[in-house]
Amino acid sequence: MKKITAFILACIIAIGLLSTDFLAEDEISWGGYFLMKNAVRNQTTGINYKIGTTLSTNKSGTTEEGVKLVPKKTAPYLTFNFTEGDGIYGTDADYFPYLVIKVKLSRVPYATEINNIGVNINGNKIGESNYVGVSYADTTDWQIVVIDLSNADFIGCVESIKIYLMESASLDTPITFIYEYFAFLRSEEAVASLKNQYNGDIVSYVNSVPKGEIPGNYPTKTPIPAATRRPGPDTPWPWQNELDISGDRTTSPGQSSILVENASYTWWNNKQAIRYVDKKDQTYISHATESGGICITSYDHNTGNIQTSVLAQFNLVDDHNSPGLAILPDGRILAVYSRHNADTKLRWKVSTNAEDITSFSEEKYVECNKKVTYAQIYRISYEEYRVFYRAVTGWATRVYNWVYDEWSDEVRWIEEKKGSQYYLWVQEDVAEGRLNIFMTGHPKGGYDQNIRFGYFDADSNICKLDGTVIGNLDVQASKILTPRDFTDIVYEASENEHTRLYDMTYMSDKMGVLYGVGVGTEDTSKYYYAYYDQETNTWIKNLICDSGKWLVAGNMYFGGISYDRKDMQTIYVSRREGDVCRLEKWHTDDYGATWKIVDIIDEAASEDIVVMRPISPYNAHDDIDVIYIKGTYPSYSTFNTELMIYGDEAPATPTQKPTPNNTPAPATPTQKPTPDNTPAPATPTQKPTPDNTPVPATPTQKPTPDNTPVPTTKEPVTTKAPKNNKNCGASSAIAQIMFVLGATLIIKRKGVL
Q1: Among 129, 194, 195, 269, which residue is least crowded by beta carbons within 10 Å?
Q2: What's the rounded Cα separation, in Å, for the pair 314 and 288?
Q3: Cβ burial 155-188 (10 Å sphere, 16+ → b, else e)
């Protein structure tokens, strides 16, 4: 079970019985809480809370002692909906499985009444029933009721709480339920301490617990305090895109194969696939499993051996939880991950040995100011890695020092103040120390759909394209930047358009980005290839093709496109033609003005199968040019997919190494863009033959939705690689107690990426 906040979480309501000064505002460090005196009275039922109360009574209201409930139906219940200002909203529900209730009934329940307390979790049943087998005692005195929810499948963030008062209440004789508090505790020891040592007095219990010290048996996972960023040593290290030579192939050229079964990943963690060569020659891939596992898989290019290691096991099934990876200078693997919008902890592990994923250190974490998700990792000095992560509607950053195993303070540097989630890609530039960034809003309801650009220099300055400094990643500004502070717009979306970022160039001769544009609620979009042209000081935007129908309607998920890390003029395209989902390799010789389809990599056999999210490993071996997801994918939390790998039939053509001053190497051939960003006429496009031998060029034509380059006709072949053994509210890191109205956690998954 995971944490709602830190070591202890109590959700409490004080209804007259608790002093009004309990947990004052300046004691927010205990965690989120909710006091009944702060509730909004429902004029219909008289219940002191907000919208959503569905109490089935005819004489309900509040008294000095609590809420008076007179059943009108045989199964009365209450529902309480929370917002971000209520403290417990959005916290992780499954780390504190002991629900403790202090309650008094006006009469002893009848024998004909089923005296169980019902707890409903987001509509998911607990065991075989919505009701937990705990009964009220035969007394009218105060009683402590403890409900063990450890076998319940809590998934996601708390947005509401529901309590079923009893399953079958008598309608003849009124009964009054008076609740002093509901509390969620971490362990049996904590429950025993509250009941026995403090006789159920939650105020005394809370006041007895020193901050940072909690009675009971609590998790061994270590909260790590942030530190001031240390000055790094003068140890030199190369800022360059090093490409190791590929040895003999261990995959079948031109054929796809299964890398990992029951696995998926999201776009927004980086790096997800890295090849590292020292004593071994291995590619490391991060992913999540269908059962909530957070994993790393390694592929050995010398032996073809595949291994998978489970870093963490969450009840939260979500492919957004896949880690970001980095290979440390000593060859050990760093994995940074979080639980998608579930808590405020940025977690990390480091492998015990170099080039070995079979053993990792214990999980550690740093507390962040808001709920976090995604991790993008970039090396910035010999011993430092800058990590970016999303914090609800904005992004924050820290610097990790692998020598000291510590983190700098959090700096929140961008916030979408219009209240919608915001997305960005960061990537190393060829200029030493520079990180480029592209950003946009969520395609479904995001306020700002423009594709924007900025960069970070070697001194951590946040810059516009012309070099204007607008902030610094090492200093928390009093006024956090918004997307509109980044005035360099790659694509300016019209009022009814929505956009999605897919990939950006890595240490390439041009700054480039791949993105999609859709219109309104239409179920298709268009893929674009854009780059910055230094001669004209403009962003050149070239259409690639239509995406075809979306793969997941709810969040406007399309198959996606990505660069080949060895050559920005080669891309991988997932698209639908009719009902068939296909992954293709495309190439351009003029930075997107014209295209040809080099190969069909894979094709789905039926409409419900998706072939999507291609990614190219950093420093890729010829064994693995691209990794992608294949299977059924209803959503990011319910998927039945495999990770596939594919290597070309012939090694990729060597690319020219970019110059260090960011001056583009000559393109072959280069077509000069027009100042108004309109692509010049397309050059001839060749139709590959089944054996990939080009035939004479057909007449010049620009790819359009009805004029897409004709792909090769070879049938994709899928073979299996060697199988692996599969074992496979603001808060702080101190003791925390949340006081909340309600007994049942209803955990509602948000329909966003």
Answers
A1: 129
A2: 10
A3: bbbbbbbbbbbbbebeeeebbbbbbbbbbbbbbe
Distance CA 440, CA 517 (A): 11
- Compute the chain's Rg from CA coordinates: 28
- Residue 568: pLDDT band (50, 70, 90) is very high
Cα distances from 699 to residues 210, 510, 601, 710, in angstroms, run 78, 29, 26, 13
Contact (CB, 8 A) for 625 and 647: yes
Whether the CB-CB separation of 716 and 603 falls below 8 Å is answered with yes
Are 414 and 480 a contacting pair, CB within 8 Å?
A: yes
SS3 of 626-642: EEEEEEEEEECCEEEEE
Terminal Cα distance for the chain, rounded: 24
Q: How far is CA 413 from CA 388, 393, 396, 457, 458, in A?
A: 10, 11, 6, 15, 16
pLDDT at res. 31: 27
Across 392-420, average pLDDT = 92
pTM given for the model: 0.64
Q: How far apart are CA 619 and CA 299, in angstroms?
A: 14
Residues making up the chain, counted from first to last: 753
Structure tokens at 379: 């090396």
Candidates 733, 633, 658; CA nearest to 264 is: 633
The answer on pLDDT for 461 being more than 70 is yes
Q: Average of pLDDT values for 635-648?
A: 94
Q: How far apart are CA 725 and CA 95, in angstroms?
A: 29
- For 251-290, the pLDDT digits (tens) are 999 999 999 999 999 989 999 999 999 999 999 999 999 9
